[in-house]
Every structure is written in structure tokens, then in C-alpha cells.
Amino acid sequence: MIDFGVTIPHYIECLPNSLFVKNIEYGERTLKSGFIIPAEKMDYEGHFARPRWAKVFYKSDNINYIDVGDWVLLRHGHWSTSMAMTINEKDETLWYISPKSLKEGLMAVSKTMPTQLKEFGIIDDTTL
Questions:
Q1: Exposure of 53 by Cβ count < 10 A (0-12 exposed, 13-18 middle, 19+ buried)?
Q2: How far apart are alpha carbons 2 and 33 in whole angstroms?
Q3: What is the per-residue pLDDT across 19-49, written as a single tens digit (0 to 9) for each?
Q4: Taking the mean position of all CA atoms in its chain, how far away is CA 82?
Q5: Calpha distance 24→56 (Å, rounded)
Q6: SS3 state of residue 18
Q7: 103 phi and psi, to 5 degrees?
Q8: What does each C-alpha distance from 66 to 50, 71, 105 come to in angstroms?
Q9: Alpha-carbon radius of gyration of the chain
Q10: Which element (helix H / strand E) includes 102?
């Protein structure tokens, strides 16, 4: 994770066709059989390369098919390195979704958190 030590004022806007997401899904998984799949490293060598769910934190004004608070499914590698920021006096970890990644990597949108994310300890906080 990169800690930019940035404080984002509430009036900052996203660039056109871009998003910031949080709660990206990854980590150790335990299957029903008890088999443990170790925590993934989000690398580009093909290890554990799979789509991920993330919650939309900020979005540009010109995106009308996604709302803040929606969950988006992104193809592997269509997000930036995580960034630690302080927003409205709250520490947040965000990932940037570029216009190209939004166009080529967006697979699905959900208004509610997918239930399988609970196994990663992800909580759908409604305080954005």
C-alpha cells in the first residue's frame, strides 16, 4: 500500500470516466472442505488472477450507470495500487479505476454487497 499522506477535501472531483473504490476483495480463503487457499498477491504473473468486487467510493459526474455505494466487479489488474488517504478525518484505503479500466475491466454492477464477500471479513458500511 502507498501512503501518500493526502487529505482529500469533500469538493475534489474525479476525472471523467473514472472511479475510486474501497473494500477490494482479496485474502485467504477457507473452502467448505477445510482446504485453505493462501492470501493472494495481486501480481501480474497470473497467480490468483481473477475478477474482484469493490465498493464505489467516488465517481465522476458523467458516469450515470454506477452510483456511489454500488459494488463493481472488475477484471484482474484493472485497478491501481492501494492508496492510504485521510478523507473527512477518516482513514481510508482506496484504489483508482481509470477510464480505460472502467471501459475494459468492468464486468458487473450490484446495488448490494455480494454475500460471498463476508468470508473476507468485508463489511458493507453505509457511511461513505
A1: buried
A2: 36
A3: 999 988 766 666 677 776 666 554 555 555 6
A4: 9
A5: 10
A6: coil
A7: -70, -45
A8: 22, 9, 14
A9: 15
A10: helix 99-105
